[in-house]
Amino acid sequence: MSITIEEDVWLGGNVVVCPGVTIGAGCIIGAGSVVTKDVPPGVIAAGNPARVVRAIGPDDRIGLGAASPRPRVAASQNCPRISWRLAAKSPSVTKHSSRNRSSSCAHAYAGAMSTTPQHALPSGFTARSTATEVLAGIDLGGKTAIVTGGYSGLGIETVAALAAAGARVVVPARRPEAAWAALDARGLATVEVEALDLADLVSVRAFAERFVATGRSIDILINNAAIMASAEARVGDDWESQFATNHLGHYVLTNLLWPALTAEGGARVVALSSTGHKLSGIRFDDPNFSSGYDKWQAYGQAKTANSLFAVHLDALGADSGVRAFAVHPGGIMTELQRHLPRTEMIAAGWMTEDGTVNPLFKSPEQGAATSTWAATSPMLAGMGGVYCEDCDIAEPTVAGSATARISGVDAHAIDPAAAARLWAFSAELTGVNAFA
Fold first, then answer.
1. What is the dihedral of CA 182, 183, 184, 186, to 10 degrees?
2. Residues near 375 by Cβ (< 8 Å), separated by ≥ 6?
3. 258 and 398 part of one domain
4. Which of 114, 147, 175 is the last residue of a domain?
5. Lower Cβ count inside 10 Å, N or C end of the chain?
6. Are strands 82-85 and 2-5 parallel, antiparallel or unpaired?
7. Sequence-ordered alpha helix ranges (H) in 186-338
8. What is the pLDDT along the chain (436 residues), one digit of tens a residue?
9. Structural domain count, the chain
10. Helix or strand or coil: residue 327?
11. What is the CATH number of the domain that holds 426?
């Protein structure tokens, strides 16, 4: 079942999509578009009349489910027609060949590939759901997953859940011996361990080249490893260590693994961010804190970078069938806190004097749930480029609210312009860009 939007129709105010492009059910059309054909049953538009002949506003929705991407801004010429294929199930975005598609049309299509609205679905899961629970009924047999830092904390819980669902899991580790011991102790001896130090781009490149050389594809990449609030340190080309390890290492890893991520289509990349993103945007003028180091602002910058990385990777990769998500796992007591003195955690309310952890914190099994959900949930088919928390897409932060510091996503962490700027900046710093 399909409808055709006639020529001179724009999406999102100034976007034209090429002939032959089919966008899945539930896509939201921006102001300025006009439907002139009969609307099939199930279409949500202007009260769902049998026929719509008017401009479609920003709140009107076309298709079943109304949960698909909003088109990005992109200009092009000679792309007059758009075909909407209405599906009863998950929305998807696919490109079909056209002998008449010009290079400008192809560019417009890439620009129109877009992210999901930053609003809860809702998913039906909660902050207390576990990784095992969100994977219930999902068979990952034949799938390959890579989980950085997957041998401690929520990382090993993520690995355990994915492996139990049938996935073949690879854990790149800075300390391979420790990783083997931890995984063996959990009965995960079949999980593969490879050497990888995210702070050393030579090590990152060596791992990626080894993996790509095997010819295996990647279905799931979870960029889980991180350091938090560490003392000032420099790595690589005199980079601040939290930005370099948490962001640049994963940026280079993902780019170098791109051939394996696109080998079969449908891969997902999950970047672990956190509410730490609320502490700082990207300090483009001084990302390395040459004017004075603050460990929490440095962590905040790194976590914002993780979120923006997912936003732009999704924009770049959706055309190849790769979708990306940023995830806040929640507050969890793990080795991530190893750089923090006990007194600081007590003062922050994370634990009491006797070591009792704040009941608002999650268990590692619960902390692993959102990244696992983002990596595997059928609910997210055709979606991407959003920040998730508590096993759902997060809502934008409500400024001034009582929960503004601990929930929701701040605008600077999902801003497409900032995401594109960070991508270009990262490419300049590292000399790596799979899309150049």
1. 90
2. 145, 162, 220, 222, 268, 270, 325
3. yes
4. 114
5. C
6. antiparallel
7. 201-213, 241-242, 249-256, 258-261, 295-317
8. 333 443 333 343 323 333 333 333 334 444 344 444 444 444 333 333 333 333 444 444 443 333 333 332 222 223 222 333 222 222 222 222 222 323 323 222 233 334 589 999 999 999 999 999 999 999 999 999 999 999 999 999 999 999 999 999 999 999 999 999 999 999 999 999 999 999 999 999 999 999 999 999 999 999 999 998 788 999 999 999 999 999 999 999 999 999 999 999 899 999 999 999 999 999 999 999 998 999 989 999 999 999 999 999 999 999 999 999 999 998 776 677 676 788 877 887 877 888 888 888 899 999 999 999 999 999 999 999 999 999 999 999 999 999 999 999 999 999 999 999 999 999 999 999 999 9
9. 2
10. strand
11. 3.40.50.720
Same domain, 302 and 254: yes
Q: Are residues 79 and 187 in the same domain?
A: no
Range of the domain at 358: 131-430
Q: What contacts 323, CB < 8 A, 6 or more positions away?
A: 267, 268, 269, 314, 317, 380, 382, 383, 384, 385
- Examine the domain organization and report whether 74 and 135 are in the same domain: no
Residue 204's alpha-carbon distances to 195, 220, 398, in angstroms, are 9, 18, 38
Under 8 Å between Cβ of 205 and 253: no
Nearest to 24 by CA among 382, 394, 309: 382
Place of tokens 């290492």: 249
Strand positions, DSSP E, 149-264: 168-173, 192-195, 220-223, 234-235, 239-240
Q: Which of 109, 251, 299, 387 is catalytic?
A: 299
Out of 114, 143, 167, a domain closes at 114
Q: Is residue 435 part of a domain?
A: no
Same domain, 23 and 143: no
Note whether residue 288 is domain-resident.
yes
Stated pTM of the model: 0.73
Question: Is residue 387 annotated as a catalytic residue, yes or no?
Answer: no
- How far apart are alpha carbons 206 and 151 in whole angstroms? 20
The answer to whether position 97 is within a domain reads: yes
State the alpha helices, DSSP H only, in 361-433.
364-367, 369-376, 416-430
Q: Does any domain span residue 125? A: no
Q: Are residues 313 and 211 in the same domain?
A: yes
- Whether 73 and 212 map to the same domain: the answer is no
Name the β-bridge partners of 4: 83
Match 């075909």 to its residue by tokens.
83
CA distance 88 to 73: 27
